[in-house]
Structure formats: C-alpha cells, structure tokens
Amino acid sequence: MGIFICRKDVVHIIFVLSLLSSDIGFTRRVNATLGINYGQIGDNLPQPSQVLGLLSSLKITKVRIYDTNPQILTSFANTGIDLIVTIENEILHVLIDPQQALQWVTTHIKPYFPATRISGIAVGNEIFSMDDKTLISNVVPAMVSIHQALVQLGLDTYMHVSTANSAAVLSNSYPPSAGSFEDELGGVMKQLLQFLYTTRAPFWINAYPYFAYKDAPTKIPLDYVLFNPNPGMVDPYTKLHYDNMLYAQVDAVIFAIARMGFGGLEVKVSETGWPSKGDQDEVGATTENAQIYNRNLLRRQMANEGTPLRPSQKLDVYLFALFNEDMKPGIKKKIPKYGVLDIPLIDIPSFT
C-alpha cells in the first residue's frame, strides 16, 4: 500500500529540515537571568527606592518598565540592574520625525546612561495585535528614528531597539514547526524583522500559556502548561519533544520568523506569568497554580535551559509582574492578579 503525501506537506517538510540544519538552531550561549516586569499603574505601590530592596531580596538583576519614569531611572543608577524602558504607544506618531526622536533620546535616555544600565528600548507594546492600522504603521518608522538617534549619540552599541508583541500576531502555532504570522501583518512584520536583523536586536514576544489553557481547559493538560511532569507532545515534522507550552510557543515564533526569511533572529520572552486570582471565567487562576508556574519557570531558568529548537541558547524571560496593578484601564479592580509578591516561591534559593 503506497503512502501519499500532498505537495503542501512536502514543502513544509523541506522547510523544516532546512531550518533544523541552518542557523535557526545556532549554539551561541547567552548569559541571562530571569527578569521581571515592573508596572506602576497602582494606588498602593512602593517607591522606586523601596523596590530596589525587593529586587535585591529576589536576586533580580533584569527589569522591564513600561515608560521612562525619571524617578525609576534615577533610583536604578549604579545598581547593576539591566533595564528595558518603553516608549508609550500614544507618542509613536511623534517619534517618526528623526528630530523628535533625537530630542526624546536626549531627554529620556542620555542623562541617565551609563549610570543606569539601560540595555534596551521597547517601542510600544503589543501594537501589532491592535485594530489601529495607523498606529501599526507607525511602529517601524519610530524604531528607525530612535535607533538613528542612538547612533547619532553614540549609544547604539549599548542598547537595542525592539517592540513587544502579543502571541496574537501568530496565525498558527501548533505544531511549533507550523508557526506563521497573520497574513495581514505580512508587510509590516517583514519591515520589523528586517530592522531587527540589521540592528541585531531580538524579537520580543509576550507568551502566556495560561490564556491557551483558559480557552480550552478540557483539551490542554494543566501539567503541560505548568511545567509539571507530563507526556508532552512531539512535533510531527521536527520530531522535537515539548514538555511545556511556553517553549512550544517560543519555537512557533522562531519558525514564523524563519518563514519570513530571518531565521537567525534571537527570540526573547518579554512577558509570561500566571494569575493567582481571577474572575469566574478565569479558569485555573489560583495561587497554587501561579506558584507552581513561577517556581517551575525559575527552576528551568536556573538550569540554563533553551527551547527544543535552540537547546544551547538559554531563553531570556521576563516574568509578569512584580506588582498587581489595580488601576490599569479596562482591568477589573484587583483581578486578575499577576504580582509575584502575592505568590510564595518556596524552595527557590535565588533567581540566578
């Protein structure tokens, strides 16, 4: 009895094999530690100087913030903490102008560096999954202008320019080797990837296995999304085994990028986490599950793990979040909760 494979499957298999033998699985090691997201939209948050004590107790040396709060930039000076700052979505249209971008960098970055170790600038957050096409079209031009300003000021070798993307930019993520971007993002995504490739900057992805589990709790094993022991899944094309969803999501992004012709880009997780409390429809949002997810993620980071596709490159991850932000627009007060200070992390000696 003959085995028939359609042309589409043949093309896919050839694509996968070419990637597995190319630099998509490159072995450059990255010395990284688990980072954390530090949001500030709350009514009961400690001052930045107090936050430093918390970060020190948690052994955290990498932080991402969602603005360029001068109080934070000043407080973090000479602490050795790597800081990713963010340009708010609302001002991107202004920064398309190179002169405005230069003024922004001169005002918000240059006065604090190098005392404050700013290692990256995120231009907007999750814009490509929004409906505002004008805003989407502003992202890459603003990134180009900001990078040009860094070059002009001699800062481009110290910090990268990127943007954080929602997992919603993917049209397909299962199996990981079938990862692809939404067709409607094709043009702007190629511009973004070309910029990242040219400037050697990473692709940032906000990856939340929790959301996938919440939407299909009867189909997705809880242990698979919590990093607990489980049978996992095998990608039928790469034959790579996945024992957790986060790594599968990241590898799906890597494949999607490679499909656009930029297989060598590094992918970093700008956000991931698990809520300790939620509304009635927030299935699985419990303190116990959040504790398990964060603890197991920490253990993976301490083991210097990479994904199955890039096992020798430690995955750079930023946990969401340091605090619960109860004043975020559109968020029900106090739920869902992601703040790690509400989630005991037992039996973990350090983040490093």
Automatic annotation (TrEMBL):
Protein's recorded name: glucan endo-1,3-beta-D-glucosidase
Its EC number(s): 3.2.1.39
Keyword Signal: yes
InterPro entries xref list: GH (IPR017853), Glyco_hydro_17 (IPR000490), Glyco_hydro_17_plant (IPR044965)
GO molecular function: glucan endo-1,3-beta-D-glucosidase activity
Top EC class of this enzyme: hydrolase
Keywords: Glycosidase, Hydrolase, Signal
GO biological process entries: carbohydrate metabolic process
The organism's place on the tree of life at top rank: Eukaryota
Record SUPFAM superfamilies: (Trans)glycosidases
Statement: the UniProt record of this protein carries the keyword Signal: yes
